[in-house]
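Worked example
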Amino acid sequence: MNFSKTKKIKLFCLPYAGGLSSFYNKWNKCLSEYIDICPIEYPGRGRRVKDPLYGNFDDALKDIYQSIFKELNTDNYALFGHSLGCVLAYEFACWMKAEKQVIPKHIFLSGAHPPNSFKDNMFNLHTLPDDEFIEEIFRYGGTMKQILSERKMLSAFIPIIRADCKAFETYREVPKIDKLNCDITVLTGKDDEIALLESTAKWQIRFNGSYKRYLFDGGHFFINGNTEKIVKIVNETLINYV
């Protein structure tokens, strides 16, 4: 690939299950000018509302690979992913290495266990009846409250997040032999019921690069109430690559 030369670093941002790329728009007011942010949209919502939903994790990974690869006009790039987006970011980097492509300079791994442990406290949410499914999803927070009172919005929302949850919950890692030569930052909510503190620390053993970890007040969706703190970390981290 022919990459353009720039003093900026490109940051691809991957949402959580049920999330929109527009979630990351609020970062713009705090983000440094040397970072070119590129939020990724999952199918079935936003600007991709007519695209078919994911059937499994492999569908999601292939889609992410295509979505990022077509926007990858520089070898100086980083990834940020939360929850489902976190695991997709990691597997995307592994795919790039396997394809002998340029891997990211840095990955921000937020709100998810590494593959060998993130299933420990999960169950198959995507198989629950609608009422139970919605109850569990809202227990973790992170979703717009108006959906609860808008039946039309709720009906449209259920298949989207169910497909994303299925992709997350059916994920089975293909074992890797080599570590990734990539720097990482791990972000974790102190009260996260999905990504437990002791498990998220294990990301470090999968990489040869530098490692930092930050803990935030809150549960699985700690990113909602810590925008300025998180963007400050992103800014201070990525300045090292420009």
Summary: The longest strand covers residues 183-189. The CA atoms of residues 60 and 240 lie 31 Å apart. The first helix runs from residue 57 to 69. The chain has one domain: 9-241.
